[in-house]
Known about the structure:
Blueprint: E1 26-27, H1 40-47, H2 62-72, E2 79-82, H3 84-96, E3 103-106, H4 113-119, E4 124-127, E5 146-150, H5 162-171, E6 177-180, E7 201-206, E8 219-223, H6 225-238, H7 245-255, H8 258-281, E9 284-285, E10 293-298, H9 303-312, E11 315-316, E12 318-319, E13 328-332, H10 336-350
Parallel strand pairs: 1-11, 3-4, 3-5, 5-6, 6-7
Antiparallel strand pairs: 2-8, 7-8, 9-10, 10-13, 12-13
Helix pairs in contact: 1-7, 2-7, 3-6, 8-10
Amino acid sequence: MAExxxxxxxxxxxxxxxxxxxxxxxKLNTNENPYPPSPAVKEAxxxxxxxxxxxxxxxxxxxxxxxxxxxYKVKPESVFVGVGSDDVLSVAFQTFFNSDKPVLFxxxxxxxxxxxxxxxxxxYEAIPLNNDLTIDPEDYTLExxxxxxxxxxxxxxxxxxxxxxxxxxxxxxxSVVIIDEAYIDFGGESCLPLIxxxxxxxxxxxxxxxxxxxxxxxxxxxxxxxxxxxxxDVKFSVNSYTMSRAAIAVGAAVVKDSxxxxxxxxxxxxTREHAKNALTRLGFEFPDSKANFIFAKHSTVEAKKLFxxxxxxxxxxxxxxxxxxxxxxxxxxxxxxxMQKLTDAxxxxxx
Length: 351
Ligand SMILES: *Cc1c(COP(=O)(O)O)cnc(C)c1O
């Protein structure tokens, strides 16, 4: 090791799902939406003038912030925007998790949380799930430096009701509670109404999943104006111009077309429920998902084997060789044609 390497901040990075270059694959591994985004995206992109790209974008992304505020019926002061919700969550970690006490999150959850905690040197405690993979709100009453929970949780897909979320927020007036609602539009119910009642609640959402815009990188958070102000102070201390002119324009246009994404989400929900039946018939078990994926375990065949066999047939799903979850595959809900390909391949593998 070179001498300078002693001074390097060493990180164990988050591993995203594969993005294979091949065209002819069925990609059910990164929870992307199988449908294209609203046609409003095309219009917004066509209206962009390439000459304007010489100018910095608006540092406050006001056009996007006010469009989100109008859609979700909150004040613009209650909205923070960023480069995907990964950016928003990362700023929230830096802003709110600044204590010697551990930040709490479930042991099985979005695997970016411990990565951010490590890189920002935030102490944390991963709380085991119940045996049925549900979260017990009572576990989140320990002394802590903050709380972050994905709802529906990833990769289980299990949704926790608003009463349970409220009990956690209420029990922790001394900490900020972040609820990561990346998958909320697929059948859950957002805890957004609670931000009026609790000034320590931050609700984070994204355009990547339900609005089919993973490639544009748009995420947002909503909460009490004081929380948002603290986040903006950190953001403006690191990088003022996080969102491109394209992302701001596209985001503002698409948020006004909520009919469109509600339609595609309804299709995905229908396909998901159909896929649940097909997977059950093939011998899989899974918690009841309210997300755009199913976290499934086969009664006899190892997940690793299924993962590899599916890959040979050009179907990509997600698999983690990690304790507790190594028996499971996380299968993104694609179109009904994608799911038919998946069940045909599984039928072939399992015969
Ligand atoms: C996909 C995902 C995100 C982040 O998505 P962005 O594309 O960065 O908005 C955040 N949290 C969870 C639980 C996710 O699954």
